[in-house]
Amino acid sequence: MRLVKVGIASVNTTVGAFTRNMERVLTLARKMAADDVTVGLFPEQVIGGYPAEDLIQWQGFVDHQWPELERFARETASLSTVFVVGVAVAHQGLRLNCAAVVASGQVLGLVPKEKLPTYSIFYEARTWSRGYPGMAEVHRDVPLGDYLFRFDFGTLAPEVCEDIWSADGPQRRRTYSGGELVVNLSASPFRIGFVDTRRELIATRAADHQCTIAYANALGSNDGIIFDGGGFLNQNGRHVHETPRFQEGYSAAVVDLDRTMRLRTENTTWRGDYEAWVARGGKPVPALDCTKVFQSKRDKLTYPVPAHRSFFLPGPDQRRPAREALCEDVLDALALGVGDYFEKTRAFKVIGIALSGGRDSLLTLLIAHRYAKKVRPENPGSLLRAFYMPSRYSSDATRDAAETISRELGVPFQVIPIEEAFDRELAVAKQMLGEQPVTAVTEQNVQARLRAQRMWNWSNSAGGLFLQTGNMSEKSVGYTTIGGDLMGALAVIANVPKTVVMYLLDYLQEKTGYEGIKKVLAKPAGPELAHNQVGEEELMPFPILDACFYLFAGEKLVPAELVQALTAMFPEVEPARLQGYADKFVRLFLQSIYKWVQSPLSLHIGNLDLDRERAMQLPVVTGSEWTKKA
């Protein structure tokens, strides 16, 4: 047996906070070594933080990472663990995203990332350069390139994030060259349901290449991109271990690398593929001999046996129900996004929400409270402030709902009427317009802008993080006010569809029993900027609105195709009405792009959202002729 204990760390880093990031890394490294971990891996770019965006173009940003890597090597020199750490290096004019192998006080080698994602929220090819097959350079007297690392316990094959997402990535040639334990340092953002995709991908790669794969993912939120952490250990396609998500720390498990090599000898398909690779002229990846530098201590390791003591029977099923898993993951991700923005910017002392008594602001408050409960469990409400700003259109029911949930959560609640200011602003608008009348939409927008202005005034003096509360569905069709409810420092649910907002609130109502949630849900959704205003009556039913958004913005269907899909999805609605909904959505969507570019930074929880700098890059000035039938 060649038993190896693999430790997988999740570290919540801040971009550019090199010293603080390294302190977190060192703390976990020491704990791993004390736990007899043989190989400990940390996420991608764990020293500099991820994503660094264009900061990587500053020489100083890159150069300051190397001293921290050397400090890590010095301070772990006495530990009997091999560590793999994510670091950026500047080499001959190139910026390389590397996995650094460190042991016995030395940086033994650097392996650069080869696959650079430039899709969805990623722009890596803009700033980073690629490693390549056969790369063999030297950086600061350290081997840099396409290398394996041979230790007394086995052969290590480091790689970085996207390298595992390609079937033709470096993993193929490295395992054909003798790599047994592939360690992938990753920064894969949270996306709804995506953890299952990661798990399946790693199992597939481990089976395809007949190797053991250890995968460590980044944790924390930086600029609205949320990383859920966690990691996997899979041996030749068999799931071995999964580490906790949404929390900093490490988890470890033991594998027998003799099993990996034995399965290679038994797998005729793998052997045939290997022979074909050799016949095509595949060049072996060189292995750096590290056996003289580092000697592992594995005498305390025991053979990995199932906790339920059966190799034939399944263990206890610890999976959560699908509804709970989705809701808890989304709520954890958004709470992490709020908390990290609040803490890492170091600009705020308290969190403030304009609470309307409606669904969106309620969910935003509950997410902020979820974070506050984690950092101030004894009094989470002390970190939050809620403001209810009624006008003549505000109902007693919404005020009661807002006041009730604030009381239940222990959040200080203030009522600040805007009626007098509303009258003044209407008078000024009439004066400016002269003979031209003030429109009904303007009357609505005046109220929203007054509320936003007051929240900004509070924020300036209180050091408050003003949270924007709008959802993705209404934002997509411009059912929002520039300078009003579109305002805030951080848009918490701007990428959460309205149907998901309601789904989450139903779940939270069942879980918590809060009366305030029940009161909010008892009233039809509407902004209360006019008499008896109901959102679905002014727009369309929210399930249809969300379907239009997904099909048009996500699947890129033109209106005629959109109607066909809607007809299949909503057979109970007459086709003419669906045609009207589709036409209305596309018209509003395209004419509302100018609003999106003025909205605050938003939290990302999926591949489809409206952040122009990240995922939905659409021109502001655009015609709509292309949406008509050809």
UniProtKB/TrEMBL annotation:
Pathway: Cofactor biosynthesis; NAD(+) biosynthesis; NAD(+) from deamido-NAD(+) (L-Gln route): step 1/1
Enzymatic class: ligase
Catalytic activity from the UniProt record: deamido-NAD(+) + L-glutamine + ATP + H2O = L-glutamate + AMP + diphosphate + NAD(+) + H(+)
GO MF terms, alphabetically ordered: ATP binding; glutaminase activity; NAD+ synthase (glutamine-hydrolyzing) activity; NAD+ synthase activity
Residues the entry annotates as binding deamido-NAD(+): N445, E474, K595
One CC-aspect GO term: cytoplasm
Domain of life: Bacteria
Cross-referenced InterPro entries: C-N_Hydrolase, C-N_Hydrolase_sf, Gln-dep_NAD_synthase, NAD/GMP_synthase, NAD_synthase, Rossmann-like_a/b/a_fold
PROSITE patterns: CN_HYDROLASE
Active site: E44 (proton acceptor), K113 (for glutaminase activity), C161 (nucleophile)
Alphabetical UniProt keywords: ATP-binding, Ligase, NAD, Nucleotide-binding
Pfam families attached to this UniProt entry: CN_hydrolase (PF00795), NAD_synthase (PF02540)
HAMAP family: NadE_glutamine_dep
Function: Catalyzes the ATP-dependent amidation of deamido-NAD to form NAD. Uses L-glutamine as a nitrogen source.
Family designation: In the C-terminal section; belongs to the NAD synthetase family.
Protein name: Glutamine-dependent NAD(+) synthetase
Source organism of this protein record: Hyalangium minutum
